[in-house]
Amino acid sequence: MEIFRPFxxxxxxxxxxxxxxxxxxxxVFSSSAVLASQQHNDSLYFFIHQLIxxxxxxxxxxxxxxxRKPFCQSGTVVYALLVLSxxxxxxxxxxxxxxxxxxWVGLFGLRFQPSELAKISLVLFLAHYLExxxxxxxxxRVLLFPVGIMGLMTLLIVKEPDxxxxxxxxxxGGLMLYLGGVKFRYLAVLGAMAVVVFxxxxxxxxxxxxxxxxxxxxxxxxxxxxxxxxxxxLAVGSGGLVGVSLGESRQxxxxxxxxxxxxxxxxxxxxxxxxxxxxxxLLFVSFLWRGLVIGARAPTPAGQLAAVGLTLIICIQALxxxxxxxxxxxxxxxxxxxxxxxxxxxICTLAAIGIILNISQRKRSTGKNS
Length: 370
Known about the structure:
Elements: E1 2-4, H1 11-40, H2 45-65, H3 75-91, E2 105-107, E3 110-112, H4 114-132, H5 140-158, H6 163-179, H7 184-203, H8 206-216, H9 227-238, H10 264-297, H11 301-325, H12 343-360, E4 362-364
Antiparallel strand pairs: 1-4, 2-3
């Protein structure tokens, strides 16, 4: 039994989310105004679309927060969301390609990236399944279904192609299996198989190999393969302690590709310096802390796994993005949650946070007043 406390959600996590949203909106405008003027004759183009995504995301968050029933533990909801995600991922391949990739589904002029929804559906599915089968997780037959779902999702996403998101999804799913009680020897076998599969896809695409070589030796081809990581580190380094001030970045002026998406953290570092980058890092560390606390206090094992899983997938994505920007890892095309431009990512991230906050409103019933 559990008690639902309306609007008793975790206030620190909500405050962190709003702060990151505000910073993200400011940085999207700062990093995209020149590009928007050139491509769309409107310096506010990307900023307005980010605000629309943020508004839709906030509506989704508040709607989820108000749901009294523990919907994320309902098999009907969990499996419906899983089927929807897999169907949309498959539909990407019959949609017209955008920039030679199939990552979006389009309807009435609107585009949505199903891989963002897949992150939520996989976490909720694993949380639900692992709770139901918690007494049989030492049987490898029981693990075939969740591992198969993880593999199918990963394969669909990596074929879009979106190698970074596929890797993020698989790592997060593996962590959930471990937290859910799956024995390490099974995870070791799964990990070994995954290494082989990801290696095959890595070396099957020349541009991915180029990203690895440019990461290992960026100075050998600064004007070619190493241009993007070099410009990113240059932007962060030129910011110094307090930055060159908002809007004064030079690297966003056609030097650093994807300045408003994958490399927005570099522009933030240039304009706000070490103070700005450390602040964002601390906000995500605080986000991780509150999410883990909510998970620890959740009244059911499924709620615990869902809260922790959604928290981890957001924070791991943030860590991947930051390491790439700082030149500590090869480029993977992973946006910074709540900061980078992208409506699909923003809406789904806020929906995930809404689920975490919904779980934070629930506590175990002592039976005295229930």
